[in-house]
């Protein structure tokens, strides 16, 4: 357990403690906790050290929980919706710090989230779960080679639909098609081919359109 750290989607911190008391408590029970590292993260917030946790806002409680987790030298870090209740600037800063200050080749980080568009640039592997069943388990590298998006004009719509896209959407007179496993040469003949976003892959898999 000394090598594992977990944060739930609902921060479960003792509300009766003050922030500074919580740090002392964690320092006493977890041998791999660095008070100095946690304080360095807290300095970027507006969390007062002398206030009880019950007096903090929901966002501050989440920030405090994340700062404690980042201060623990764990080999396995499990984060369940870690940035719920935080504004977009702090979310981006957290994931940046996670990569720059925390992650190394000897650590594994597992993140469960519905905000896939925010973290796809830091992932190496992805698992989609629907109704308790795994619908997709693959590396990001594999997903980039398998899924693709093409944007084309009215003259190519029939050709694109003949390749059985996962789905299509239209905006400003152009139609984008999302494909699973289609021949790349055939796609290039339709228009510019780009990587399909993880959010779009997620939508396709959750809707049951992709096999």
UniProtKB/TrEMBL annotation:
Coiled-coil ranges per UniProt: none
Domain of life: Bacteria
Regions that span the bilayer: none
A molecular function GO annotation: ATP binding
Keywords tagged on the record: ATP-binding, Nucleotide-binding, Transport
InterPro entries: ABC_Transporter_VariousFunc, P-loop_NTPase
Record-given protein name: ABC transporter domain-containing protein
Lineage: Bacteria, Pseudomonadati, Pseudomonadota, Alphaproteobacteria, Iodidimonadales
């Amino acid at each position: 357990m000394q090598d594992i750290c977990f944060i739930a989607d609902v921060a479960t911190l003792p509300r009766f403690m003050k922030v500074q008391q919580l740090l002392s408590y964690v320092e006493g029970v977890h041998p791999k906790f660095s008070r100095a590292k946690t304080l360095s993260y807290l300095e970027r917030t507006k969390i007062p050290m002398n206030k009880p946790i019950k007096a903090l806002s929901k966002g501050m409680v989440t920030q405090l929980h994340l700062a404690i987790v980042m201060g623990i030298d764990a080999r396995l870090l499990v984060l369940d919706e870690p940035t719920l209740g935080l504004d977009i600037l702090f979310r981006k800063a957290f994931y940046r710090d996670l990569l720059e200050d925390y992650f190394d080749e000897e650590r594994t980080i597992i993140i469960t989230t519905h905000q896939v568009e925010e973290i796809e640039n830091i992932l190496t592997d992805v698992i989609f779960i629907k109704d308790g069943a795994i619908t997709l388990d693959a590396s990001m590298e594999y997903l980039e080679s398998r899924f693709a998006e093409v944007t084309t004009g009215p003259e190519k719509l029939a050709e694109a639909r003949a390749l059985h896209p996962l789905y299509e959407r239209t905006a400003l007179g152009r139609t984008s098609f999302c494909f699973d496993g289609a021949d790349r040469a055939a796609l290039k003949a339709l228009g510019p081919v780009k990587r399909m976003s993880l959010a779009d892959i997620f939508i396709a898999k959750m809707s049951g359109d992709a096999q």
